[in-house]
Amino acid sequence: MLLTRRSIKGRENIPKRGAVIFVANHIELVDSPLLWTSLGRRVYFMAKEEVFYPAIIGYCMRSFGAFPIKKGRQDRKALLTAQELLTEGKALAIYPEGMRSQSRKVKLAFHGAALIASRSGAPIIPIGISGTEQIRGVGWIWRRPYISLEVGKPFSLPPIDGKPTKYELARLTDVIMEHVTEKLPELYRGCYRPRSVTGVES
């Protein structure tokens, strides 16, 4: 991060303590270290299980605060870990898209973040990341790319009685991603667009 020009807006929206879920778009591997060094508190990350191999990489990932989640299906163990962290008053960071976007545009998101948030009741803070797509190869070191983080105000999902249906989770996921895209430049918004969402507590 020392070799970039970094702008962080909305620091005042980051709580210094207590359970919180940070949700952000995902462009490059550097996104996680960027959040880890920018948010001012220890953050735990979900990461696809493939990046925990070989073992030495897995050790480094866990030391960094990451824990694995199985890609493409509901991972009960990962969901339980996330719930335990929030119950302990810790901060969890999730990329709802589940993978990096090679085009920088936001992709269709999975429902995991909505499920965790609806079960835990933890406040959600949206973060828009832009500029990290420039950190590829070696030449970027000489360019000192401009990276921007914009942190939104916390919001909560509307309560759901009983187990949420797929339709309800899809609707809540849209709510989350609309908040994220509000913090992104137009070129990054992809398949989501910011709009006024009713029934959401600020």
Task: Describe the protein's architecture and organization.
With 202 residues, the protein is an alpha/beta fold. The chain has one domain (5-188): 3-Layer(aba) Sandwich (Glycerol-3-phosphate (1)-acyltransferase), CATH 3.40.1130. It is built from six helices and seven strands; from the N terminus they run E-E-H-E-H-E-H-E-H-E-H-E-H. The protein has a seven-stranded mixed sheet with strand order 1-7-6-2-5-3-4, sandwiched between helices. Strand 3 (43-48), helix 2 and strand 4 form a beta-alpha-beta unit.
Please describe the topology of this protein:
Elements: E1 5-9, E2 20-24, H1 31-38, E3 43-48, H2 55-63, E4 66-69, H3 76-87, E5 91-94, H4 112-120, E6 124-130, H5 140-143, E7 146-151, H6 166-181
Helix pairs in contact: 3-4, 4-6
In short:
Helices cover 29% and strands 18% of the residues.
What labels would you give this structure?
seven-stranded mixed beta sheet, Glycerol-3-phosphate (1)-acyltransferase, 6 helices, 29% helix, alpha/beta, single chain, disordered C terminus, 7 strands
Cα-atom radius of gyration: 16 Å
User: How many domain regions?
Assistant: 1
How far apart lie the N and C ends? 32 Å
Q: Structural class, from helix and strand content?
A: alpha/beta
- CATH T-level fold name: Glycerol-3-phosphate (1)-acyltransferase
Task: Output the helix-strand order.
Answer: EEHEHEHEHEHEH
Number of helices: 6
- What is the fourth-level CATH superfamily? Glycerol-3-phosphate (1)-acyltransferase
- Strand order, sheet with most strands: 1-7-6-2-5-3-4
Number of strands: 7
User: What is the CATH architecture assignment?
Assistant: 3-Layer(aba) Sandwich
Low-pLDDT segments, ≥5 res? 196-202
Proportion of helical residues: 25-40%
- Kindly provide the name of the CATH class: Alpha Beta
Proportion of residues in β-strands: 15-25%
**Per the principal axes of the C-alpha atoms, what is the gross shape?**
globular
